[in-house]
């Protein structure tokens, strides 16, 4: 299992569009490194942490 994820893998884990993942990068919610070829890679731990935050926010929104 790799410690880094591509944009598409990150989108799949977060259940979001790839454009949303790029938005999270631009706004600082996720940090990406770039390969020499320009591919963005996200740390798996950061993605999993954000996924938990997003799940908690969604669950809290449903309790109204």
Percent of sequence in beta strands: 5-15%
CATH class annotation: Mainly Alpha
Largest sheet: 3 strands, antiparallel
Mean pLDDT value: 91
Q: Runs with pLDDT <50, length 5+?
A: none
Q: Determine the structural class based on helices, strands and strand pairing.
A: alpha+beta
Question: What global shape is seen?
Answer: globular
Radius of gyration: 12 Å
CATH architecture: Orthogonal Bundle
Protein described:
- The chain is built from three helices and three strands, in the order βααββα.
- It is of the alpha+beta class and 64 residues long.
- The chain has one domain: Multidrug-efflux Transporter Regulator, Chain: A, Domain 2, CATH 1.10.1660.
- Strand 2 and strand 3 form a beta hairpin.
- It is globular, with a radius of gyration of 12 Å.
- The termini are far apart.
- The mean pLDDT is 91.
List keywords for this structure.
alpha+beta, 64 residues, globular, Multidrug-efflux Transporter Regulator, Chain: A, Domain 2, 3 strands, three-stranded antiparallel β-sheet
Give a short summary of the structure:
With 64 residues, the protein is an alpha+beta fold. It is 55% helix and 14% strand.
Q: Strands, helices and their partners?
A:
Blueprint: E1 4-5, H1 7-14, H2 18-26, E2 32-34, E3 40-43, H3 44-61
Antiparallel strand pairs: 1-3, 2-3
Helix pairs in contact: 1-2
């Amino acid at each position: 299992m790799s410690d880094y994820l591509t944009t598409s893998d990150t989108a799949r884990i977060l259940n979001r569009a790839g454009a949303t993942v790029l938005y999270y990068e631009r706004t600082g919610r996720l940090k990406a490194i770039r390969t020499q070829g320009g591919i963005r890679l996200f740390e798996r731990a950061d993605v999993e942490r954000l996924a938990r935050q997003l799940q908690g926010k969604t669950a809290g929104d449903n309790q109204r």
